[in-house]
Amino acid sequence: MKPAREVLARLRELRAADLPTHGGRTLAYVYDSGLSGVDELAAQAHALAAAANGLDPTAFPSLRRLENDLVAATARLVGGTPSTVGAVTSGGTESCLLAVLAAREGRPDVAAPSMVLPSTAHAAFHKAAHLFRVRPVVVPVDPVTFRADPDAMAAAIDDTTVLVVASAPSYAHGVIDPVAPIAAAAAARGVRMHVDACIGGWILPYFRRLGRPVPEFGFAVEGVTSVSVDLHKYAYVPKGVSVLLHADADLRRGHFFASADWPGYTMLNSTVQSTRSGGPLAAAWAVLEHLGDDGYLELARQTLAAVTTLAEGIRSVDGLRLLAEPDSTLIALTAGDAGFDLFTVADEMRARGWYVQPQFAHESSPVNLHLTVTAANRGGEAGFLADLAASVAAARDAGPVTVDENVAAFVAALDPDTLTGEQFEGLLTAAGLGGGAGVPDRMAGINALLGTAHPALRERLLREFLGMLYRPD
Question: Is the whole model's pTM more than 0.90, yes or no?
């Protein structure tokens, strides 16, 4: 048996290689309130309930109480009514999965169900389509604003449609889809309407209270039948806690699961998971109780100020522009025809201690860098913008990233349906990842190479890469 101190020392050693989760320098994946004491409170609450099992709400009634409290608090923010019900899930993807599952199960008369998605809908809906065999009908968005086109969405609804989706906001560009006309079109056809507010659901209502014009996107909009809101984003609770809300209990029933036809206990699940630790529930509940309405209003004020300052600063950097005016807390910036490579800018920012997220070109959206702004970024905007300008200058000096024409031809000839292990190993070698080299510090060349692949091939390559990463040493 190893002493506890040695185990923890090894864990700290491993964590040292990770991106920082506090301080506002990782502008993707993490959400930081910047407040002291919040993590400690959450950890203590998590420990108090970690051994409790959400599999059976009658055995652990405290978890039922905590979950109902989280659902009620979320519903109040997004226009819930006394009939609004919900479930706490492990994250936004599970919330979106269950929204699709409930819609499918609610229409057993449709033999080959489909759902209508704007092309900017989160990839979680494509995962749901794959898992639950609901055909995605993808509708291009406005090529300038990147918002869903209500008329095109309405035209895509047919007799097989069981769900229509909009975002508040979309992840890639940070803009809010026109929920009201899309919901009206869905309601006119008797189809459910889900709003993916995983990012904006908790903070946009506070932005509205601060005077920012925010259109209604929740249950105050007629025709909206479900809304997803992640608490581990702008409620600043530990991962993973999300809430899926339904307008009434009948709409929720389709994602419940029960199985009694076996000799063991009767299985009853409200989510995809069966066993669920009570730790995340307790941690989330404790943070919400601690911060309260006034605390979240102040955090939203700081976040809004940071978003505004960063957006203004990005406009002043020669060669950069915003892809869209940010409706929420997400910023997408691009280089246009500035003569430098954005993937190199991302590498240069990483070298300066910042993580910004590269996004590939898609439809009218060019290669861009994504920023997830939190309250922790308030006060650090000047440092970020100075390093961004320096990174752009370094990328301009470095010149464009080019892909060897022979490598590009090799990639173009790959078939994602028949890609062999040998071909994948050859591509890794061409990209400088062969021989167990691991992931390099600079990714511009690899991202440029991936950018030459069409999405289906890129997906296959990334699956192979994931398989390479998850191999026991």
Answer: yes
